[in-house]
C-alpha cells in the first residue's frame, strides 16, 4: 500500500513484494492511478484493490512548497480517516492477515499485524524548529499504532538518510532493513553514455529541470540519455548529436541504462538514492526546490562524499560536470548488506503462515 507521493514509494516496494511472494504469501496491492499501473505491470497476477491516494498538490514556486503542503493538512487527515474505514472493510472481505503500509498513516489495525515503512522519522520542513518537533511527535503517534516500523536504511554512521531516520530517539518498534531497490548490479553491461539524466518529481519543477537540461545539453559534446519520467506517453527522439530523449524506460531498461552510464544526474528522491547506492553509481543530485527532505539529503550525502549536489537555482550543466569530475566520490557499499530486507520479510511471513 504505497503512498502516492511520487512513484518512488511504489518502486521501492517491488523487492519487498517479490520476497513475500517467494515466501509463499498471497498478496493484494492497494493503489490507484499511475502507482497501480506500475505495480500491475510488474505483478500482473496480483489483485489490485483501488485505494485513493492523498493526492497532494504542489506549489508553482519552490519557496511556497511548505505552505502549500500545510494548507492541505485537512485533506490528508480526511484521507487517513477514509483509509481506516476502508481497511476495516477490506480485512473482513478478503480475510487479510497482515498489512504493510508504505508511509500511509491510516492503515493500522487492532486485530492483525501491521507494518509502517518510512525513511522519515524526522520530517523536514522549510520552517524547522518547533514545527518539525511537533510533526515528529505526530509522526511517532501514528507509527506506534503499528506493530512494526521498517526503515529502508542502515543503522550506524554509514547510512543514506542522516537524521531523517537516525534521530536522537527511535520509536521502540523500529527495524532497519537496508536498501530497497528493484535494480541489480551486473558485469555484462558495456559503457554507452557519458551522462544519464533522470527527470522526476512533481510538476512544475519536473518540467523546469527538463527545460534546463535540454537547453544546455545541446551545447556539449556528450553521449547522453535523458529520461523524462512520463510513463504512458511514448517518445524517443535524438535531440542533438549523441543525445537521446525518451519519456520512459521500464525497470529492465532503466537498470541497464544506469549501469551503462559514467555519471547520473537526478533528483535526490530517496528511492533514487537507494538505486544509485545499490548500483554503486556516481551521481550529480539536483534537489527539488522547496522540498526540504531532498535539499537536506543532497547536502548530507555530498558532505559524506557519496554524491555531488547542486541547487537547481544555480544549475549549470558544464559547471556541474566539471565539479563532479573533480569530486572525490566515495563508495557507499563498504560492508553493507544490500539484501538485508530479505531476512526481515521472511521472518515476518513465517509468523503469519
Tell me what the structure shows.
This is Glycosyl transferase family 28. GO terms for molecular function: hexosyltransferase activity. The chain is α/β, with parallel strands linked by helices. It has 2 domains: 8-181 and 338-350, Rossmann fold (3-Layer(aba) Sandwich), CATH 3.40.50; 193-326, Glycogen Phosphorylase B (Rossmann fold). The protein is built from 11 helices and 13 strands. The strands form 3 sheets. Strands 9-10-8-7-11-12-13 form a 7-stranded mixed beta sheet, with helices on both faces. The radius of gyration is 20 Å and the shape is globular.
Distance between the amino and carboxyl termini: 20 Å
On the 0-100 scale, what is the average pLDDT?
89
Unreliable runs, pLDDT <50, ≥5 residues?
Answer: none
The CATH C-level name of the largest domain is Alpha Beta
Identify the overall geometry: globular
Spatial order of strands in the largest sheet:
9-10-8-7-11-12-13
Quick one: how many beta strands? 13
Question: How is the main sheet built?
Answer: 7 strands, mixed
Give the CATH topology of the largest domain. Rossmann fold
User: Structurally, how many domains make up the residues?
Assistant: 2
Strand content: 15-25%
Oligomer: single chain
Task: Please report the number of helical segments.
Answer: 11
Question: Element order, helices and strands?
Answer: HEHEHHEEHEEEHEEEHEHEHEHH
- Which structural class fits the helix and strand makeup? alpha/beta
- The helix content is 25-40%
For the CA atoms, what is the radius of gyration?
20 Å
CATH A-level architecture of the largest domain: 3-Layer(aba) Sandwich
Amino acid at each position: 500500500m504505497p503512498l502516492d507521493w511520487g512513484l518512488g514509494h511504489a518502486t521501492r516496494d517491488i523487492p519487498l513484494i517479490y520476497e513475500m511472494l517467494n515466501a509463499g504469501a498471497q498478496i493484494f496491492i492497494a493503489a490507484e492511478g499511475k502507482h497501480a499501473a506500475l505495480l500491475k505491470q510488474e505483478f500482473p497476477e496480483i489483485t489490485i484493490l483501488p485505494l485513493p491516494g492523498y493526492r497532494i498538490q504542489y506549489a508553482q514556486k519552490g519557496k511556497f512548497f511548505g505552505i502549500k503542503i500545510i494548507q492541505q493538512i485537512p485533506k490528508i487527515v480526511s484521507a487517513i480517516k477514509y483509509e481506516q474505514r476502508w481497511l476495516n472493510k477490506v480485512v473482513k472481505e478478503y480475510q487479510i492477515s497482515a498489512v504493510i503500509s508504505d508511509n500511509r498513516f491510516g492503515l493500522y489495525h487492532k486485530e492483525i499485524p501491521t507494518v509502517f515503512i518510512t525513511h522519515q522519522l524526522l520530517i523536514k520542513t522549510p520552517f524547522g524548529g518547533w514545527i518539525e518537533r511537533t510533526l515528529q511527535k505526530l509522526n511517532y503517534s501514528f507509527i506506534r499504532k503499528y506493530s512494526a516500523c521498517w526503515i529502508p536504511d542502515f543503522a550506524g554512521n554509514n547510512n543514506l538518510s542522516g537524521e531523517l531516520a537516525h534521530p536522537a530517539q527511535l520509536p521502540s518498534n523500529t527495524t532497519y532493513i537496508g536498501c530497497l531497490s528493484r535494480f541489480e548490479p551486473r558485469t555484462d553491461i558495456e559503457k554507452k553514455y557519458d551522462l544519464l539524466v533522470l527527470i522526476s518529481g512533481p510538476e512544475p519543477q519536473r518540467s523546469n529541470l527538463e527545460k534546463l537540461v535540454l537547453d544546455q545539453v545541446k551545447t556539449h559534446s556528450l553521449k547522453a540519455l535523458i529520461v523524462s519520467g512520463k510513463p504512458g506517453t511514448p517518445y524517443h527522439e535524438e535531440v542533438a548529436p549523441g543525445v537521446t530523449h525518451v519519456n520512459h524506460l521500464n525497470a529492465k531498461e532503466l537498470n541497464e541504462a544506469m549501469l551503462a552510464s559514467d555519471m547520473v544526474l537526478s533528483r535526490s528522491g530517496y528511492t533514487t538514492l537507494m538505486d544509485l547506492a545499490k548500483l554503486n553509481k556516481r551521481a550529480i543530485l539536483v534537489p527539488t526546490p522547496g522540498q526540504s527532505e531532498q535539499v537536506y539529503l543532497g547536502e548530507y550525502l555530498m558532505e559524506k562524499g557519496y554524491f555531488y549536489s547542486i541547487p537547481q537555482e544555480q544549475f549549470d550543466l558544464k559547471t556541474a560536470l566539471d565539479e563532479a569530475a573533480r569530486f572525490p566520490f566515495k563508495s557507499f557499499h563498504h560492508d553493507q548488506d544490500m539484501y538485508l530486507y530479505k531476512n526481515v520479510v521472511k521472518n515476518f511471513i513465517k509468523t503469519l503462515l
